[in-house]
Amino acid sequence: MIITPRQCRMARAGLGLTLCELACNAQVSVNTLRRFEDDGRVTMRTIVKVQAALLHAGAKFAVCDTVSLSSADDLASL
Q1: Which pLDDT band holds residue 71 (cuts at 50, 70, 90)?
Q2: Are 59 and 14 in contact (CB under 8 A)?
């Protein structure tokens, strides 16, 4: 499953990450991340990198366009 721009915005906000922090973690430019969150027009490679960074930070994505966050206990086991 590939995340949507809406899920990206929700996960980033829920994790308390700035655009700059997530872009750095995903190794993409801030402008590219902003473009993805605004209209989704980026490469699949970019989406995969952003999704991986959000998953690593504790986001969980569902097919129904929702996001949940891992608990601190879940993250401690990583």
Answers
A1: low
A2: yes
Fold of 5-73: 434 Repressor (Amino-terminal Domain) (1.10.260)
What is the residue extent of each domain of the chain?
Answer: 5-73
Which pTM was predicted?
0.84
Percent of the chain with pLDDT over 90: 76
Q: For 70, which DSSP code?
A: -
